[in-house]
Amino acid sequence: xxxVTKTPEREAFYKKIDGENLTALWTVMxxxxxxxxxxxxxxxxxxxxxxxDYMTDAGKLITAKEAERRVLVxxxxxxxxxxxxxxxxxxxxxxxxxxxxxxAHRHSQSALRxxxxxxxxxxxxxxxxxxxxxxxxIITPSMTWHDHSNETSEPMFWLDGLDxxxxxxxxxxxAEGSNEDQQKITKPSGDSxxxxxxxxLPVDVKRSSKTSPIFSxxxxxxxxxxxxxxxxxxxxxxxxxxxxxxxxxxxDFAMPTxxxxxxxxxxxxxxxxxxxxxxTVFCPIExxxxxxxxxxxxxxxxxxxxxxxxxxxxxxxxxxxxxxFSFSDRPVQQKLDLFREDRGNA
Length: 346
Ligand code: 1HN
What we know:
Blueprint: H1 8-18, H2 29-32, E1 44-46, H3 48-61, H4 64-67, E2 71-73, E3 90-96, E4 101-107, E5 111-117, E6 119-125, E7 128-133, E8 137-140, E9 146-149, E10 156-162, H5 164-169, E11 175-177, H6 191-196, E12 216-217, H7 219-230, E13 241-244, E14 259-265, E15 275-276, E16 280-286, E17 289-293, E18 296-300, E19 305-308, E20 314-318, E21 322-328, H8 330-335, E22 341-342
Antiparallel strand pairs: 1-19, 2-3, 3-10, 4-9, 4-11, 5-8, 5-10, 6-7, 6-9, 8-12, 13-14, 14-21, 15-22, 16-19, 16-21, 17-18, 17-20
């Protein structure tokens, strides 16, 4: 869309209507309706080792209880001050040290955890406690009570992903704290997986939640699925082998607002270029490699975090078998008929 020429009469008119909270569409239309996504979100990589060191400093400054959540927010360099890693999503790295209790609360924002380091700390969701291990993907559905604790002797680190900017956009944030630091445990550990994790569903029970009834997807299972699939050597040119975490009740994404994925890039694989409208946060958990985003190249290893903005060309390269967790707002875009992808010619 062409920019409209300025004339003194037009400028005077704009100034006059401005006082009445009016704007002439023809002065702003080109910024509203762009031929392609034009995002302020920038590609970026955070080294886990650097975050880990700062988190250790944070551990000396504040307890999880006082902080409520001891988290360093990953702020996209193009979106500073907004607690956003992409335009629609929030990400942070959380540390829970031995003896910590991150007190129970609940909110309308949905959260995911992807465990980066440590073994055996617990999160409780909706009356069920689960032990966390590296590579586990754990869901905290909207409005479910959740608290975290660490009774082990090692600090625990995980990636938090939340739909905070989406909820902010729709102005539907609700939150409350609890009088009890830790919620009452009403179900045995592993209950949600035992009920829903075996390709069987209760025949007559209708749940109303759009979030998967499984709240922990243990890495042991995820890794096995990838390893079994690897023997088939059916590599996708753009993604290697990429799977989505799914809700067994619907076959849809595990969470209504955030799509979560796990991906194996085999040793020496270089992907064909790919772009999509869902800006994506990646977290490698095994292996080393590099990702090219537009004309920037990011070298990554286990637990590093990087972000690919909407509609930027991406290629991945793995030096050894690599496993990458990722998440984006794809479920929302697909439901609104907005999602678009481009596989180059692959
Ligand atoms: C939250 O509830 C958690 O429960 C982590 O661990 C990060 C960031 C903003 C708002 C709520 C958690 C959060 C959060």
